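pasting for the record
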Amino acid sequence: MHFDPKLSRYSRQMLYEKIGEEGQQRLSRSRVVLIGCGALGTVQANTLVRAGVGHLRICDRDFIERDNLQRQVLFDEDDIAANLPKAAAAAAKLARINSEVCVEPIVTDVNAANIERLADGADLLLDGTDNFETRFLINDLAVKTGRPWIYGAVIGATGLCMTILPHDTPCLRCVFEQAPPPEMNPTCDTVGVLASAVNIVASLQATEAIKLLIGKKHEINRHLVHFDVWSGRFMNMKVQSAYDEGDCPCCKRGEFPYLDGQMGSTATTLCGRDAVQVNTGIPCEAGFEAIARKLEPVTQSPVQHNRFMLRAKVDGYELTLFPDGRAIIKGTADPQKARSLYAKYFGA
């Protein structure tokens, strides 16, 4: 079979009859926004860039730590030494994998104030997050704008995946009406996580993404997939009735409290990190050099900074400040304590 020479790197993918040359060309014209570039996000980004998606915007608020390397496939020890944020490190690695794909890294906290701008022009939204608040925000935007998105979650050896077509399949709030309280959620820090389980969830998400991007909407999996990779159990759970028979506040009543900013928080406990993100919404205008000079007298070690972030160790806590004014306070899971430390060292 003869394909367009410009698409030769995708020849094995195009040989699969469900995709072919036409599907590949459609894929190359597609635009995807990935929200979160940790365990699930790095595998999805890696798979889709190698598959030849046209434009991938990666939005992530975080930086790389050593224990990420067990499962976050786009990072290495050099990225940690360079103090690179996840979005920037991922984009640099992906550019070396496939220079034909436009990868756009955005180091930011995705919230009600910016998600519509970040998702502008996207054909599809992908979930690489680790918390229900952000997932419900994605869900609100997807339902309001009629844009598909793909939910994924993993903990321990178990995983979940669900493709959401607004006003057709159940949305996330049809299935999970309310977010469970953080103290009731197991995290990677409390029960661990297997990289193999991560890879399965993210691969399912990427496969569903490809189906949608090449126009195979009718072939998506309309179930909630649940599996335990350790025991080898896989289930396709029927959830369509949650939409057909339910009275979802989001997709049936048109209520979007997360997108409207009613449910967002300025301090968010990060999954399995003993850390809290504080987001004032006020960009850092003083400059990292000036802030570093202010902090030097009270820090336990020299303040480190580059154009992406500033990091300082103070009073047994690790403070990481970003240009948009966000900070991650490591060493506490208490939002009030994190806010207090932010105000003390960076200003209210």
